[in-house]
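Q: What does the assembly look like in three dimensions?
Context provided by user:
Components: two
Sequences:
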Amino acid sequence: MANNFARILSGKRNVGIMSLVGAGSLTAAFLLNREHVTAGAQVRRVYPASADYPDLRKHNNCMASHLTPAIYAKLVDKATPNGYTLDQAIQTGVDNPGHPFIKTVGMVAGDEESYEVFADLLDPVIKERHNGYDPQTMTHPTDLDSNKLKSGKFDERYVLSSRVRTGRSIRGLSLPPACTRAERREVEKVVVDALAGLKGDLAGTYYSLTHMTDQEQQQLIDDHFLFDKPVSPLLTCSGMARDWPDARGIWHNNTKTFLIWINEEDHTRVISMEKGGNMKRVFDRFCTGLKEVERLIQEKGWEFMWNERLGYILTCPSNLGTGLRAGVHVNLPKLSKDPRFTKILDNLRLQKRGTGGVDTAAVGSTFDISNLDRLGQSEVQLVQTVVDGVNYLIECEKKLEKGQDIKIPPPVRK
Amino acid sequence: MPFGNTHNVLKLKYASSEEYPDLSQHNNHMAKILTPAIYERLRSKQTPSGFTLDDVIQTGIDNPGHPFIMTVGCVAGDEETYEVFKELLDPIIEDRHGGYKPTDKHKTDLNPDNLKGGDDLDPNYVISSRVRTGRSIRGFCLPPHCSRGERRGVEKMSVEALDSLSGDLKGKYYALKNMTDAEQQQLIDDHFLFDKPVSPLLLASGMARDWPDGRGIWHNDTKTFLVWVNEEDHLRVISMQKGGNMKEVFNRFCTGLTKIETLFKDKGTSFMWNEHLGYVLTCPSNLGTGLRAGVHVKIPNMSKHAKFEEVLKRLRLQKRGTGGVDTAAVGGTFDISNADRLGFSEVELVQMVVDGVKLLVEMEKKLEKGQSIDDLMPAQK
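A: Here is the predicted structure of the complete assembly.
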């Protein structure tokens, strides 16, 4: 069986993708442009799109809901300038049909350009996942001015801990599902170099997963900081766990209130946390830290992936926009047993998780409560939503303690 | 990624040393053989279907291995992998297959008449007999690399061929994705059903993509001849039955395989085979015959004997638990099979199993009577 490939060279930058598919032939050639790549890469296409279209009849994820044979046929011959393809982007959704009750996203981005090249699929997926946000017509507000946050100090008889996390990607380097080992190591180097420039209460140390001593490992486990190789097939099927633990690591400041994961599900995950209910201070540190890290990488000529259509670009479409999850561990023994609990959370635009994080169950009556939304609202707006919402939940709990009745609040947004 | 060459051009802008994997904690054949120099020479290459060096070795990078078990640590994505990356694969093959050289020729012998004896293994000890191998269909990429269309093509072609088998080989195909609950339960009860691989050794190579699309099980009506489609290889072919009549098992094995091969030839294709590597399969450990002939045998006394391992080594046999590879033996019943795959013909390997198991049973009987087995110790084969 002969496969013929044509290599086409071009001098233009970011022209886009041209695909030549000879009718009835087994040939596909691509024009791919990028500053550093001088030869066109090829995608091997032996079968017509209809023969390769995945069987999604038993699937329940956002990708499966929107990948029609027509969209598949349109996109399957395309590749990003880095060479990332549609089949790679959707593999996790093909391999993980999903839950009947939980709708997963079912696809990932391999690089920043994935969101452009595969927009015909990603835009409807984003719209479904982010409550109607239309990337073609809307813009996303970014606001990391924590001074705007009102109140934000919770009653510590109920709130045990406060945390804000997000992710950041380094522009110019492929994302975890697609990155090469050299790219991943470059992400590590760029970020660790920048973090070494943090001072004051942000000064800290980096612990590479490869070089960690047993003692360091135990300390990180005790601090609940250590992340391990992903076991969830949702993650492993996308290829993000390749070469583990090469170029993965954890950085945290000396006071253990600002923590960065490197090369786990995203280039970086940035976490500000502390015991107790001072969400204001957590958010202050979060914004200061993020801006400082951004300044430090810019000094070296790097920047974060961001655009006004999608906000901060991350691996999973569910984390676009702010990529922000602000949450508390809060004790709500009476409210959590009230049949109106779920509706109250829905209207407040909050979600509950167990205290082990996503896909875990609550222990006792302590819940992880955080914002549902990521895209379409700014960081300040989302954290305010959590502050206002958690305060409301605590008021409900107090009322129930006194035998008073509670009210389901009106929805905070559509 | 384990499919498509689309990333290889990007990688080349980085120096080889920047891309070279960290194998300092690793103990597998790939990690033993791969050097920065080999990596540099091979990393810009690809097979005609676009399989690259990183595709070959990804499973070995992701699975550092056991201190005691040497895994292979690499896979092939197509037939040409063994040519294009021979600089890496030849030494791995030599290491894994007892010194088999790049210039050696492999003998194929599927004539069951050449097997001496094998119809008289004592059924009081030998509970079941089984021969398995794999086959790849020339012209299609292998499980780590194939597209969904290709995998379905393999399934279609295989089912067409199997559906035309007749006589005691006549049977039925059960696609994994269309199976009814009743069919599934029956296949489990028959110990025929294979499930999605869970071993990270397999998952990291990409062979479980799109599960269960294009996968299925075919077996004959008498449940003695079974074919797995699109699991770790295009086809795994199994002949098995209760008791110790290995000769009958091997007869059926050879007859069935030869018939299937003829059917494929009628369709204008064939199995991947060459005179150096024999039958070409996904894992380099299964090259040559791809054959594992084995029995489940009750040897509680023998298995506790100090010389058990030595005897197995000399007979060129290996032990496994009755759940297959990486399982433990239950109650003194072991799975005993040939250790070799390449460099010996099918007849030679089955002969080793037949002769070797006969001897093990003799030794077991002696130990039962409290006698010594010293005078029965075999020479190194």
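Follow-up: The radius of gyration of chain A is 23 Å.
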